[in-house]
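Minutes, structural biology subgroup

Action item carried over from last meeting: produce the structure token record for CbiET protein (Fictibacillus macauensis ZFHKF-1). EB confirmed the sequence was re-checked against the source entry. Recorded below for completeness.
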Amino acid sequence: MTASIKVIGMGDEIHHLLPPYLQMIEDSELLVGGERHLAFFPHYKGEKLVIKGGLKALLAQLQNEQRNVVVLASGDPLFFGIGHYLAQRVDVDIYPYVSSVQLAFAKMKESHQDARVISLHGRSIKGLAQKVDGKKKVALLTDETNSPAAIADYMLSFGMTEYSAFVAENLGGETERCTHMTLEDMTQWQGSSLNVVILKQETEGPSWRFSMEDEAFTQRKPDKGLITKKEIRTLSLGALALREDSTVWDIGTCTGSVAIEAAKLAREGAVFAIEKNEQDLANCYENMKKFRADITAIGGKAPERLEEFPDPDAIFIGGTAGGMEQILDVCCSRLKPGGAIVLNAVTIENLAQALEAFKQRNYETNVTLAQISRSKPILNLTRFEGLNPIYIIKATQKVGEEG
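Output recorded by EB:
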């Protein structure tokens, strides 16, 4: 057992540290941190250890240390920092400094209790659009790849012009710089890689409501329109029982209507879609921009390319193009425990084939026959016009059959 491990947060200057924190550092025998943090203590008498790469090697050393250790971190170590990782694995004491987000909002002179905080540091920007869309204030932790300029380009690609930006660089240091700017201005940004970006909604953007009208989607339009109709889409998404962090597959996405609404429901998750028709896929891309849903949509005929997707929590199958058996082989073997597959069938032959296929794979099924009619004016009167009946099949793994 180590005698003591203390994780101390600090700002961009050593004078930000409280005297008791400085005394803890002086009394320690091993000082751990990034090169920038360790450079603040050139006369430290103990051993210094630079954090490089992953944290597993550091954790292994700390678990066997007999000396008193101080780990230096930026800002609040429990705010997207090393503190949480260590506290879950070894006995540590945490001594936070003000977080970079707190400092940025202070410089902006804005409250932040209602802000959404998202870390892009070491993470992909994929999916940011649906996380930001509609939020009044968003703080973004950046890195060299996800820089303010890259963020501005990304936001503008989804037409999110209702947001202004505030970039806070080198907070608390001698070279601190804070700048209000438009997203267009931010595309030309150049500055320190140590920065926080705050997005503020200045005007109302386009609103999304669950179960969007069919006409809102760009689509190929024969007589009835090649799209999963609103009512069927609503029932199918309900059957999938998505969580906020669900990973979703949409097979045969066509216009992307199901995938896009799924992305809005699973904002913290990810949606992966495949479509064999190039024109439909182009329409899907256009709808993604329009509805600010950053999903992964690729061209191909399932089950080809499904190996590129991570294991899903939920799968929607809007069409199989004659490859139902092969598609279900993949879907049933990859679905996570507790997940659901929803398959829409138009013909009784496809219904029968799907039920038998799920039965062979030890899946339980529940079928809803949706016979929808919509009102339609006729002169000064109203009549109803029926849509094609759809079989909505929900399949789940039998208890004890997972894996």
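Discussion: The longest strand covers residues 363-370.
Next step: EB to file the record with the rest of the batch.
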